[in-house]
Design the sequence.
């Protein structure tokens, strides 16, 4: 099987599991599944950060337990905590991450890496719970932005890629790939407008803004992998690398999309 077919096959299998779960799984099962995703991604983050093997497992277990227990343990305080996680992610992705990449920070200290892993993974998990609670279509509609952008960028980059986007961080990404993603998301915004009767211009700006965030999340993980001397975060997903490789763009887009949804809910 060629690498492309392997990549496509894994993506189809993931969608075949994820979409029905998002649509029909009871809330408790969805929470357990997302806690599992957090745990696997946390373990891969710990490996990228060169934690000792035992420390990496403990770190992954602790984040998994947080994801399982916090919504129930906090009870009435859960919505406020969930909002705090989203605000933390917004600050990180809009302010810290761009400066991190511009400054080429290494931040190799184990406690810094552990804290950044929490800032990246727990808000993503909180966003997955929040958006799914607003409806599976809401969650999948936001995630489709990343999926469409990633697919369009991959194929347009392979066909037309000439100019490197960030060669010192991720040599495989090109401006032509970004251009393909912009066009594909413009079509998606028009389709959403026709389906939902919402004005197309705000939708267009929204999906293009999320595209910027998805590229930022992808580049951030690529920089961490480069500093760690690793090509992939893991080998769990054939053709895609590890779980963290698959969700890197979602870690930056989902929390901010959730923040936008929260703002809309409180302003109406």
Sequence:
């Amino acid at each position: 099987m060629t690498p492309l077919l392997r990549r496509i096959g894994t993506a189809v299998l993931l969608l075949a599991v994820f979409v029905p779960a998002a649509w029909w799984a009871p809330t408790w099962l969805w929470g357990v599944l997302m806690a599992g995703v957090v745990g696997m991604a946390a373990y891969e983050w710990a490996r990228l950060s060169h934690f000792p093997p035992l420390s990496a497992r403990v770190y992954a277990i602790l984040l998994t337990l947080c994801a399982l227990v916090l919504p129930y343990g906090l009870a009435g305080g859960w919505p406020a905590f969930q909002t705090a996680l989203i605000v933390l992610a917004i600050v990180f992705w809009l302010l810290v991450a761009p400066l991190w990449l511009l400054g080429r920070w290494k931040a190799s200290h184990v406690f810094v890496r552990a804290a950044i892993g929490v800032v990246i993974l727990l808000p993503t998990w909180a966003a997955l719970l929040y958006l799914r609670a607003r409806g599976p279509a809401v969650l999948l509609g936001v995630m489709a932005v990343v999926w469409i952008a990633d697919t369009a960028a991959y194929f347009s980059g392979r066909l037309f890629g000439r100019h490197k986007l960030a060669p010192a961080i991720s040599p495989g990404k090109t401006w032509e790939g970004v251009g393909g993603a912009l066009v594909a998301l413009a079509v998606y915004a028009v389709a959403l407008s026709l389906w939902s009767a919402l004005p197309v211009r705000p939708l267009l700006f929204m999906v293009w803004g999320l595209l910027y965030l998805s590229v930022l999340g992808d580049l951030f993980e690529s920089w961490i992998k480069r500093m760690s001397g690793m090509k992939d975060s893991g080998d769990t997903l054939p053709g895609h690398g590890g779980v963290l490789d698959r969700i890197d763009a979602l870690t930056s887009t989902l929390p901010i999309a959730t923040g936008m949804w929260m703002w809309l809910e409180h302003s109406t």
